[in-house]
Amino acid sequence: MPLVLLAMACAVLLYISNRFTHEKITANARALQLGVINSVMPLPYNNQLFDDFIEVSEPGYFWNADTVIVFRARMDGQPVGIALMPVFAKGYNSNIQLLIGIAFDGTLLAVRAIKHNETEGLGDQIDHNKSDWINRFSGLSLDNTPPDDWSVKSDGGNFDQLSGATITSRGVINAVRKSLEYYKLNRDRLYLR
Asked: 85 - beta bridge partners?
């Protein structure tokens, strides 16, 4: 009998502990994800991004197996920009997951590699903490960068390739360009509620 009472007491304590910590864990996870999203959305906004998003699936632009989440930033109800996550790029070792911020006018705010398995010292230079290569995209748009420039220099484009990681460089550049093309064609639709 004492063992049964002890087991019941432990079960009650576990339930109470889970109930009180679950909300805190969820809140911490959302805060962490919001911090990542804000790294590509430096513009001021006052809506709740986690409540203002849509999911899109466009194989012609995004070759994700599933969908891309479009977080929509607004200031007093007016569109400010979007954050696309995850956008997959073809890497050397596997897919690279990108987070892409685009201002309402179609200008790239920032690009971040949020997950990859690229070779250390080569392709991993897409990580903004290891190299500033990925910061090169900020400020670019389809209007200020001609179509022929959206490739690595060895292919006649305007982007330096990461040394020893041309496949990685090509994959990221292509994914960013395709994201901008998708945005340009669908901007108004993306902000509809």
From this structure: 69
